[in-house]
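Re: weekly structure request thread

Next one in the queue (378 aa):
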Amino acid sequence: MIRLFCLFLFCFFSFSCQPIQVRGRALAGSGRPSSFPHRIWAACDFESKRYEWFGEASTSNIPQYPGNTKALGGGVKPYKNFSGLMIGLNPVPGPRMGEVNSLYLRYKLTGSESATFQHFSLTTEDNNHILLQGLTEGRWSEVSMNFSRDARRNDGTPGIPFKRGERMDDLKVFVGKPHDGKNYDLLLDDVIFFSNDPKLPRESEPFPKRVMFLAAFDTGISEKSKPKYWPGDFKIALEGKDAPEGAYWGVAQAVPKKVSDRGKWIRIQVDPMVTTGERTKLRFRYYLKGASKMIVQMFDATVQDNRHIRIENCRKNKWVTQYLDFSRDSRRNDGSKDNLRAGNLIDDIFFFVQPEGGEKPVELFVDEIVLFDAEGSI
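Done, posted below.
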């Protein structure tokens, strides 16, 4: 009887000591995730101004690693009658979110150990927020937060705040109270919005150090399915229409090259240009029909030549996630063998395919393009 009573007490206190999840609040316990996300749907390294910022570029007191020269500082002090500081960014053109949505960033916070991170959903027209406590003060740190699990809608509506396909607008970070006499400051760098699908296996590639360029083709498309925010040479194919099954909303479709050799290409103009990292890699999804080879190429504006990688034995008639190491494996088109260096400027990204005999045309679809700086040396 005594044993049963002790077991009852143990179970009671063990259960009662478990933390109760309260939406809208979380502890800053996790830093950099271990694996590459299934999707990165928005990212900003503040090296070039692709998005609108609630702040300004800072070149002093930033994380020190090759290719990183700027962070986001400044902001609004105070912000209305709501907070002592507001800083953030507006990812254009309202990217679509995935299954389980999270945010990673580097930060340096002064004057507080907590901050409220707030997204705006264009789909529900409401903000979703997390008051993150236990942040590090006074030095550069990393943090990740799970909005699908921990965020709360500002209007109090219960349930999961962000669902697959919802469009996200601005991110605002609030620190402190207005006019409380404290000096708040917050620097942000390497902001990465990402999602994972619990039904899919984890990626073997580690989480990126920095994302330089991203193209997902899901929003910002005109009525004629022409790319507005991704200039170049390609068409937009839409999920449920021209895109192969398994596509995520919109994808880039290859078009005939300007020379009449039956080949096709996709050219993505990188505007503004981006700076490479110490270990520059390219990740994308592709769907290929009528060929088993592909050339992926980037124009290095610093040396004024293209750098390419040839892919042999491409899988056909299915969506495939591909990683390419341009720092290690790419070759200059003029035959030079110098490696891609950190800080070089990238202009365009190309995908080339040729049909393999017969009269059947080649078809290529590309999606989820991520140019990133990877962890580790070559």
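The radius of gyration is 23 Å. The mean pLDDT is 90.
Next request, please.
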